[in-house]
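Hey all, quick one. A colleague (J.T.) asked me to put the guanosine-5'-diphosphate job into the tracker so the inputs and the structure tokens live in one place instead of scattered across chat threads. No bug as far as I know, just bookkeeping. Sequence used:
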Amino acid sequence: TAEPGSPYRVVLLGASGVGKTAFARIFAGAADSMDSDDCELCGDDVCEKEIEVDGEPATITLLDTWEAETGRGCAQEHDMQAGDAYLLLYSVTDRASFLRASELRITLRRFSPAQHTPIILVGNKCDLVRRREVSVSEGRDCAAVFDCKFIETSAAMQHNVWEAFHGMVRQLRLRRDTK
Ligand code: GDP
């Protein structure tokens, strides 16, 4: 749907406590270290900003769906149709959140009419090595089953978070370019 230059709407999905807010903060907070006027509309759950990926600017509108777990069905359905792409988060320290991500993936397929909507399965909190409940290979296998990309991140260590956003933009561009 996005024309070149128009913002990509990226939606953060996942159980509560997996790190969605932390992701959104890192995304929004980069404005501090770069251009302080970069981030417009930085409320609690929407942030729009331009980032550079492979030497080309891309504008991302990030939506944080904090209500996904509390079952506000309408909001959830709305969020599941609102995105050009989805970051589907779970915590590697919380198996229930991993199962929740699978459920959300299935719901997403039902609600999101567009084929090949980019989705990245994100295993967050990989810094918590001793509390890990979900292995890397389980995450990878799940992503393969669900036909989406996979990355492990640590919002706390700021590890791979930007890689996730950049990967998202690359997928969106591929999709745009093959239309
Ligand atoms: P949300 O409910 O999905 O928005 O989750 P939050 O972003 O509020 O994170 C829940 C808790 O997990 C907070 O205390 C965060 O500081 C913590 N947290 C988030 N990401 C990480 C991470 O990568 N590593 C660690 N150790 N803690 C994290």
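Adding what we noticed when we looked at it: The chain has a mean pLDDT of 85. The CA atoms of residues 99 and 109 lie 16 Å apart.
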